[in-house]
Each structure stands twice: as C-alpha cells, then as structure tokens.
Design a protein that fits this description.
Largest sheet: 2 strands, antiparallel
Pfam family, one: PGG
Number of helices: 15
Subcellular location: Membrane
Number of strands: 2
Strand order of the largest sheet: 1-2
Distance between the termini: 71 Å
Strand content: under 5%
CATH topology of the largest domain: Serine Threonine Protein Phosphatase 5, Tetratricopeptide repeat
Number of domains: 3
Shape: elongated
Membrane topology: Multi-pass membrane protein
CATH class of the largest domain: Mainly Alpha
Keywords: ANK repeat, Membrane, Repeat, Transmembrane, Transmembrane helix
Main location: membrane
Oligomer: single chain
Order of helices and strands: HHHEEHHHHHHHHHHHH
Radius of gyration: 33 Å
Length: about 325
C-alpha cells in the first residue's frame, strides 16, 4: 500500500493511465477485489470513483464493475467513499442490482436487499423497462429466494407490458415463489398499514382462478361452434344430393340434371350451399388444429396461451 500511495502522490497522472485494454489502476484494484488498494486510490483522488468508463462497448462505472464481479468488500469501499454512487446507472439504464442479477452474483444481491438504504434500486427499471425482479424470474430460480420481500413490486410492467408475475407463471416453481412474495407482503401488512401497492395471496390465487375460468369459457365457446359447424356441414352435404325440385329421370342427355338448373333461385342455392359446406369444413379442420395446442394449454407460458386464445378468437 505504501508503494501505491507513494507512486500516485508523486505522479497523480498514473491514476488516469490506461493499459492496452483500457483498464485504469482503479479497475485493476476492483478486479482483484483489493479493498485496501481501492481505498488508497480514492483517498488520493476521490473523483476517479465517479468516472464513466467503457467496457464491452457499454458506458459503466466502478461500482457497476464491482457488482458484476461480485466483490462486496470493494463495493462497500466505493459506496462509503463516493456518496451516491450506488444510484448510478450504465448506458443500458441498469443499476448495480440489475448487473448483479445478470451476473448471478448472489452475495451482491443479498448485500443490496439487506440494506434498507438501497430500497430504491429494487424496483428501478432499465432501458427495456425491466426491474431486477423481471430479470430474476426469467433466469435464475435459486436467486429468487432472496427477493421474497414486501418491497418487491410484482405488478411492474416492462416495455413488453409484462409483469414479473407474467414471466413467472411459465414455471410452476416460480409461481410458488411469487406466491411467497405475496405472502410475505401479506404478513408485512399485518404489522403496518396497507400501502396502495400491496397485494395479498388471496388476490393472486383469485387471479389464477379467473384466468383458468376464462380459458375454460373460451374452449366451451369453441365446442359449441364445432357442434354448429358439424350440423351445417351435414345439412349442406345432404342438400347436395337432395336438390330442390328433384332430378330428371327420363332417358336422354338431360338425365340426372336438376329440373330447376336454369332457375336463378336454384343457382343461388347451389352457391350458398357450397359456401356453407366449405366454411363448416374449415371450422372443423381449424378445431382439429387447436386440439393439438389445447392439450398443452395448461403447460404453456403466458405468450403461448395468449397466442392460442387469439387463434380461438379468430
């Protein structure tokens, strides 16, 4: 440490010197999780802890690099020395919790959730509208156990209009965990006044039940339509062999032709009957196609279920 202190005091410009990879002494100190070296460098020039730097074509900061590497000790030094740096975001709009989640750094996630002063980071959105919880439920189930917390907003919408609940519902285990978040919030609310953002486990269960009922209603409508289509197909098929007015049974070139063939009303009947038969057959074929998806509807995620519902509506 004495060597570092002597060098930077004698040649302050070394603090900003970069190697071929663009790394400064501070980045090296963070990379090696040297909290002592990081503290010494910041003692000489505190402003280097606030500098914007580029890594992998992303504008980021020292605190983001420490979070990505999972170096909690170095993060603590930076947070204590550089006030407000914990609220920095990178060029993708990500805070340190976003970065920790994407890098699967469980210790950093625990560190942030255990400190009440970092509450604002929990529901902050990046440039895609995703909160850290969106990223958690989409990637790593084990880490989600850390976010069973009443502060988590499971109603937050990203730019695709999806909440963490929407993403979590594609996996049974994740659903269970989201229920755990709701339960934790329920318990929390018993100890304090209810907030506008509160949610209970009963509400979540009702949402799932309502969703299931809507799906059943859709399928009942389809079943009724198929019954009607079957009747129309049967009637139109039979009508083709029992033409109004009958057929000419006399010997000759007109044998077997309908008596009313040249009548406009009969011609309209033939066209209408053919259209009815074709449409009914199309509905029946479509139902056969939907049956394939219907069998796996309950196992599909929200996007697939919505796609199936749209096909039914069409």
């Amino acid at each position: 440490m004495e060597c570092i202190t002597h060098l930077v005091y004698e040649k302050p410009d070394l603090l900003y010197a970069k190697d071929d990879n663009g790394w400064t002494p501070l980045i090296y100190a963070i990379h090696h999780n040297s909290s002592l070296a990081t503290r010494e460098l910041l003692n000489v020039k505190l402003s280097i802890g606030y500098e914007i730097m580029t890594q992998d074509d992303i504008s980021t900061t020292a605190i983001h690099i420490a979070a990505r590497l999972g170096h909690c000790e170095t993060m603590e030094v930076l947070i204590n020395k550089c006030l407000g740096c914990s609220e920095f975001i990178d060029s993708k709009g990500r805070n340190i919790l976003h970065v920790a989640v994407e890098s699967n750094k469980t210790k950093v996630i625990e560190f942030i959730f255990q400190d009440e002063s970092f509450t604002s980071l929990i529901n902050q959105k990046d440039n895609s509208g995703n909160t850290p919880t969106h990223l958690l439920v989409a990637s790593n189930f084990e880490m989600m156990e850390m976010v069973i917390d009443s502060r988590v907003d499971i109603h937050a919408l990203n730019d695709e209009n999806r909440t963490p609940l929407d993403i979590a519902s594609s996996d049974e285990k994740r659903e269970t965990l989201i229920k755990g978040i709701a339960m934790d919030r329920n318990i929390h609310n018993e100890k304090s006044s209810l907030s506008p953002n509160s949610i209970s486990i009963d509400w979540y269960q009702k949402e799932l039940e309502a969703k299931a009922k809507n799906s059943e209603a859709y399928f009942k409508i389809v079943d009724n339509l198929v019954l009607v289509a079957t009747l129309i197909a049967t009637a139109s098929f039979a009508a083709a062999f029992t033409a109004p007015g009958g057929f000419d049974s006399s010997n000759g070139s007109k044998q077997g032709k309908p008596f009313l063939l040249k009548e406009k009303a009969f011609q309209a009947f033939v066209v209408s009957n053919a259209i009815a038969f074709s449409c009914a057959c199309s509905v029946l074929l479509g139902h056969v196609y939907l049956l394939i998806h219907r069998n796996r509807y309950s196992e599909a995620d929200d996007t697939e279920q919505k796609s199936i519902d749209d096909r039914i509506a069409l």
